[in-house]
Amino acid sequence: MIWLIWLVGEERALGADNVIHTEGGGKLLTNPLAMMKWTVPFWVLGCVQISAGLTLLRDCQRRIACRPPAGRSSAAAKEGAPLMVDEAT
What would the DSSP string read from start to end of 40-85? Predict the structure, then answer.
């Protein structure tokens, strides 16, 4: 998530007073609370997306597993009845 702060700009994300420029061209970021405030919403959003995807996959698996064989009801399949064709599809 440091990449996100780098992309926006350290001074803009953390405030110019909280960034110290060193002689070698490096930067010291001195406000960890501001970094957390910038990165936590993105972590939360990522977790929400992952949980939504897993919920959709689980629901899809349940629907596929619970679906009866195509064209037959369970009672008709036991009796050996011929396949029923649905004209609506």
Answer: HHHHHHHHHHHHHHHHHHHHHHHHHHHPPPTT--HHHHHHTPPPPP
| 87 domain-assigned | no
Domain-located, residue 61: yes
Domain membership flag for residue 72: no
Q: Residue 55: its pLDDT value, please?
A: 94
Indicate the pTM of the whole model.
0.51
CA distances from 60 to 22, 25, 32 (A): 54, 52, 42
Inside any domain, residue 12: yes
